[in-house]
Amino acid sequence: MRKGIIITTAIASGVVITALIATPSIAAMNRGGDPQGTGPTASSSQPYAQTEHMNRMGDGMGSASEMGAGMGAGNRAGMQGDASKGVGMAAGLADVASGTMTDEQKASLTAMAAEEKVAHDLYVAFAEKYDAAVFSRIARSETMHLDAVRTLLERYSITDPTIGLEVGMFPTDASQKLYDTLLAQGSASLDAARETARTVETTDIADLTAASAGVTAPDVLAVYEHLLTASQHHLSAFGG
Questions:
Q1: Helices (H) and strands (E) in the chain, counts
Q2: Do residues 109 and 101 make contact, with C-beta atoms less than 8 angstroms apart?
Q3: Residue 93 belongs to what domain range?
Q4: Is this prediction's pTM over 0.70?
Q5: Partner residues linked to 21 by β-bridges
């Protein structure tokens, strides 16, 4: 969160989940002190290759609502998706115009890639641990979201800091520690995992709202709006 966030204490199966107080936003932590948003040197390795096919899959609850959720007319029309055909956001960007971005906006976009990876990797871990289909469905959505952000990074010649990083690995010590903490919290019980997921989505909503402020580039605005709508759907899916 841009402001401090309190991860509410949850009691599940007799286990008390310790609150994290005044945690910086995931996006801010993932900047890693790189104001230009250039990140480390890119690698040809694609840690998400094993889930790349998911970009063309419907998300059950998530993608159907996201991809068909009125992205608006005009230069956002190309962003509308057809979940039954598995059309992803990245493909839809082909018809959306680019614009200009400030260094600060580029840094926010870079951080957003790491933020989507945090969400994706957590949900993958929870999907493996718990018999709850919501985690695998929304992990597939996060794969599509990261693809869309990566498309923007490529358009604006910004290096993706998540390239070459395996699932559970992150570009800064702070973001790695945050992921590890959230993973440990959500591993206590299914209820704790859902609470952790609600925290992630609430954080995403706050960060996307802040990142959108002042942005004029049509393609960036379109992606941010889509991700914001998606996070709201995900929050509801996790019981928020």
A1: 8, 4
A2: yes
A3: 5-237
A4: no
A5: 6
